[in-house]
Amino acid sequence: MTLPKSGPDEAVQSAERVSTLELFFDLVFVFTVTQLTAALARDLTLTGITRVVIMLAILWWMYSGHVWLNNAAPPTTPARRCLLMIGMAGFLVVSLAIPHAFVDGDSATAFGWGYLVVALVHTAMFATSGAGRAALARIAPVNLASAVLVVVGAYLEDTTQIATWAAAAVVQIAAPHLLDAMRFPLRAGHFVERHGLVVVIALGESVIAIGAGAQGLELDLKLIATAVLTLMLCFALWWAYFGDDEESRTAEAMDAMPLRARSLRALTVYGYGHYALLLGILLFAAGVKSAVAHPADRLDAAQACSLAGGLALFLAANVVTRFTFRIHPNSYRVGAVLSLAATIPLGMFASALAEVAAIVAVLTVAGVLETQRYRDPREAAAEADPGGNLRV
């Protein structure tokens, strides 16, 4: 599948930076993360987690389709901009329906038809991009098939609804392989920046979870300590993702790859890998709500595991990404992932505050050791330069 080459202005915009309209679209999409967090916090059971995992998969791969398309065909024309606005409306409806999508018929149908709008917008934008009829004939049936499964599932109940929506997710995940997306034109700088912005926005939603958990509570010392410590955890996740200048390093590595290899790496790291990152943030945020709401109380097993497990999943996905792009070191991050399991009993048998404090200690030690043992080569080069100039 190929798209026509963009004009000079579009190529520069797509390659250098994400447009404000794309960022606006991302803000609306990440509202789904907020809603999924709320749904998960209310139902931290195997069934509840399964539902959230499926809904996130459905929405993430459709969102990814928009990212790939905007990367090759930026929303620079009035038609594309208006279509993207309609897509935002579809995502907004889906987000509003998420909390009760599996228990209320009206919410389920709103989820289904809202998703259909998003899928149709993606198909229409593909058509306006100038792609050939053959390419459009391949992508349209896939979008329609997944959307029809979501709409049909909206009118089903219980296990059949879960199974039908899971099938829709499978169709979306398989689509890049069925459509030979490895030949899709990809500008690495824009692509990496776009996903980094989504991670930042999602981390911001975790900060909002702190406020949601503290709402209506007396602002005592334990609550303040728990809130500040959980903010430190959000900062630790930011540091893990952005603190080693990973965005520029991964973009440079991808730019040096042949087109097919670059697209495959984008699919694995930013499709599957970032799905795991978002799921980790989502689980962490659900645990944060419980911890901040009851800092002096014991957490149940699900809440304690969600708090530590979400962080572990995020860090594990981050480590895999770094290994993929040969970014080192990673040993202390792996150690932190393994150590997080030891903090779960503290939440279950001591208090939420105790678990949060222990997690902060684990990530702080790992970060300090990594920083001390492995210096940035560019910093060392700058200090070694007699002229005092930074040598990049």
Automatic annotation (TrEMBL):
Organism per entry: Streptodolium elevatio
Swiss-Prot/TrEMBL keywords: Membrane, Transmembrane, Transmembrane helix
Name of this protein: Low temperature requirement protein A
Residues that span the membrane, as ranges: 48-70, 82-102, 108-128, 135-156, 162-184, 196-217, 223-243, 264-286, 306-325, 337-369
Highest taxon in the source lineage: Bacteria
